[in-house]
Amino acid sequence: MDKISSGVITLAIVGKPNVGKSTFFNKVLNKDLSPVSEIPGTTTDLFIDNITYKNRTFKLIDSGGLKRKGKSKSDEQQYITKESLKAIYLADVVLFMIEADKEFTKTDKQICRLVLDKGKGLIFVINKIDLVDELKKIKNEYIYYIKNLFSDALLEDPFSICSLKLEFPKKIFDEVISIHSRLRKNFDNKDLNEALHNAINKNKIPVYSRFRPKIKYIKQVSTRPIIFKIFGNQANKLSLDYQKYLAKNLSKKFNIKGFKIFLRFVSAENPFKSKKY
Ligand SMILES: Nc1nc2c(ncn2[C@@H]2O[C@H](COP(=O)(O)OP(=O)(O)O)[C@@H](O)[C@H]2O)c(=O)[nH]1
Ligand SMILES: [Mg+2]
Hints:
Blueprint lengths: L1 H4 L3 E6 L6 H9 L17 E7 L2 E7 L12 H4 L3 H9 L2 E7 L6 H12 L3 E7 L7 H15 L9 E2 L9 H13 L6 H14 L11 E9 L4 E7 L6 H14 L8 E6 L10
Helix pairs in contact: 8-9
The chain binds guanosine-5'-diphosphate and magnesium ion.
């Protein structure tokens, strides 16, 4: 148990310039000065520092780096930079920061999509709530967005904060710990197969060109990200909708929240096919 839960948790703070990433980073680290250390041996300007919470070490990455604001191309386009991508690549979990008084932009959506497709954990933090009156309404809008845009993952509702007056955000860090351990979970084969067959019984596999693919069994093949292989007769012919249905059903059944699970469909070989007579 301890062995599984030990290890450093890398949390990258990502978001548009000016959303308050560095303010959050400094408040959490309880330091007044900005950036503390850079990754040795790299020229990217990621700021990294460690904190300890609940006996766990968190490596916090502020992906804003040294980049000057408002220079060259628009901030909005420019923030998909090498440093954001590097931060995402290094992270176990990405804390995606948005501003309460601003829109969720196309670039925001692209970055979050990337985070999920890389198999990383994703949590949303709405910052600068001191600037708005109707937080509830804003939060609901984001919940709606998240549910619709990222329907292939079960994500938590956004947290909301005011970085300027931040106490240590325990709830956020508790969630990061849970996601981190869920990403490392090994599922029992029997439970998985039972869940899979329940899902199939509840919602029959659709016919594909006059043939109904058959699903035989499921097996976990990886953690971080969680990948399941599903074997069956023409299993690779399942419609995307049905694949999504199965992924969602499994996520719900096992409460796999905060990231996306990956299903690989493998058509079982016909045993007579390769034999030479
Ligand atoms: N009103 C308000 N301003 C904030 C808050 N958090 C950060 N800011 C301000 O937003 C600006 C950008 O913050 P910064 O941390 O540098 O953003 P970064 O570019 O994402 O790192 C600064 O002027 C901060 O003081 C907040 O919760 N409320
Ligand atoms: Mg910054």
